[in-house]
Write a structure and sequence with these properties.
By secondary structure, the chain is of the alpha/beta class. The protein has 23 helices and nine strands. It has a five-stranded parallel β-sheet with strand order 3-2-1-5-4, sandwiched between helices. A four-stranded parallel β-sheet has the order 8-7-6-9. Helix 12 crosses helix 20, helix 13 packs across helix 14 and helix 20 packs parallel to helix 21.
Length: 501
């Protein structure tokens, strides 16, 4: 500014501002001036940041600085000298080396726990046939129409790596083999139910060797409960209790629900199988209005794969083949002296009849909760319309409960029962439905006083609390004997129950 003022007064003063004169003579354009000033300013800024190296916009860090080569080398040497943070990795089992006889593809059918047990069986079959198992495909055509893939429910990477010492598992077929399948050069079939391992060696393995790829299109109950070598039974347990982990999202949300329950004391999980689909399928209409009974019948006829159509609800209930109603289970819990203040977590879908049918239970036990009441809608948003993922949450909570009470012996009830036995015989009240409904009817008719009813209910269930017991074996009637996954005695911590059949 001083030089510019002097330029307007004396020619001699122009000599005192040689830089301005030189710029004038060079006829630099304005944009070149701005570029020059920008370079100078950025150089200063970067030098300042290099000196502090602790603040400033992140986008600037890592840009060239004005450090000398010696300074840069010193910083690099310091960084190299600093040890990297230690990240502990779980040691993987060594891969099992075997001659691959072919590839096994499986399509599971049913709900979450029916598929879970089937996956365990398929791993065992793949292991003992020396074949490569492709990650199982889950059922998307059942009543629930759940589009979930295996990796949406289970930790697929853990599943593959944790079993690598037993069987090779791939996410999908190798490209060359995949082309064979696309061309129809494979074999698809349902295996025979309740088969032992010799059936798979004699009937299934030759088909795999012939076609290279075998697709088992039904997987439920395809391996026997009993009569299998001890190592096969223990591998089933290893898959079920170690390899099949839920995804981190499901695990984290499950732990959160458990923490919320634990903050308020002990809790009981009631697997109340009184949803619309269960009642329609079973034909059980106890306590329903005539209109509701007709609605359930129409639903049963609407699904062609539900083969049993004409059902006598009264006779079926007396035979103990119906899930207990909310009113019946309220009486049973009271008779068993379950404390009124106990939290009752309902592990189920929407109860048919809603609040009207739940009134007896919520009156007897005011602390009735479910995941939908404990969590915000946003917490469950990703799981909506994915029944298997919602069931996985209930499964985790059921495992950790102080008491587990299933009102029907479906797949979830059986698999959770077995898992709780494996965890140390956690208390599971296995209701004798046939005797229970008989006693309930006697009490409701006035032929039994409350103290008599309560005493009889306790007596019936005294030895039905999920303690150690040998599986019931019924030769030639596997459907009627105890289910392996409800009582995996070969894997429990009670050595007195270990035996080879």
């Amino acid at each position: 500014m001083v030089c510019k003022a002097a330029m307007g007064i004396k020619a001699a003063d122009k000599l005192r501002c040689p830089s301005v004169a030189a710029v004038a003579r060079s006829r630099l354009t304005p944009w070149m001036l701005r570029a020059t000033m920008t370079v100078v300013l950025w150089t200063c800024v970067l030098q300042f940041m290099a000196a502090g190296n602790t603040w400033g916009p992140r986008v600037l860090k890592g840009w060239p600085s004005c450090r000398t080569a010696r300074e840069a080398a010193a910083v690099t040497t310091t960084r190299l000298a600093m040890p990297d943070p230690v990240v502990e990795k779980t040691a993987l089992p060594p891969k099992r080396i075997y001659r691959n006889n072919g590839y096994l593809m499986v399509s599971c059918n049913g709900g979450l726990n029916q598929m879970r047990a089937a996956i365990c069986d398929m791993v065992v079959i793949a292991r003992y046939l020396n074949v490569t198992l492709i990650v199982p495909e889950l059922d998307k055509t059942s009543f629930w129409n759940d589009p979930s893939e295996f990796q949406d429910i289970f930790d697929v990477e853990h599943f593959i790596t944790s079993l690598r010492d037993e069987v090779r598992i791939l996410r999908e077929l190798p490209p060359r083999v995949k082309r064979r399948v696309e061309l129809g050069r494979f074999h698809s079939m349902p295996p025979i139910s309740w088969s032992d391992i010799s059936y798979y060696h004699k009937q299934i393995l030759p088909l795999i060797r012939k076609y290279k790829v075998l697709h088992l299109n039904r997987t439920d109950a395809r391996l026997a409960n009993n009569g299998l070598p001890l190592e096969i039974q223990r591998l089933r347990c290893r898959v079920n209790y170690a390899a099949l982990k839920f995804t981190s999202q499901i695990e984290e949300l499950g732990r959160r629900v458990i923490r919320m329950l634990r903050q308020n004391g002990p809790f009981l999980v009631l697997h109340l199988r009184y949803e619309m689909d269960m009642l329609a399928f079973s034909g059980c209409t106890e306590g329903c209005t005539p209109k509701e009974a007709k609605e359930l019948t129409r639903m049963r006829y609407a699904y062609p794969w539900w083969k049993e159509k004409v059902i006598n609800s009264i006779a079926k209930r007396k035979d103990g083949l119906c899930p207990l109603t909310p009113e019946e289970i309220a009486l049973v819990l009271r008779a068993l002296d379950i404390d009124r203040s106990m939290q009752i977590y309902i592990a189920a879908g929407e109860i048919y009849g809603g609040k009207r049918r739940m009134a007896s239970l919520t009156s007897a036990y005011p602390n009735v909760v479910r995941k939908e009441t404990l969590l915000e809608p946003s917490d469950l948003m990703l799981f909506q319309n994915h029944s298997s993922q919602m069931a996985a949450l209930d499964y985790l909570v059921s495992l950790e409960s102080d008491i587990f009470v299933p009102t029907y012996d479906g797949n979830m009830a059986k698999v959770v029962e077995g898992h709780r036995r494996y965890m140390g015989f956690k208390k599971t009240i296995l209701l004798d439905r046939k005797l229970t409904v008989e006693l309930v009817d006697q009490y409701n008719s006035g032929s039994l006083r409350w103290d008599e009813f309560s005493s009889l209910i306790k007596g019936v269930h005294e030895n039905r609390m999920g303690s150690a017991a040998a599986r019931t074996v019924i030769p030639d009637r596997p459907k009627e004997e105890d289910y392996f996954y409800a009582n995996p005695q070969e894997c429990t911590r009670d050595p007195n129950l270990l035996r080879t059949s």
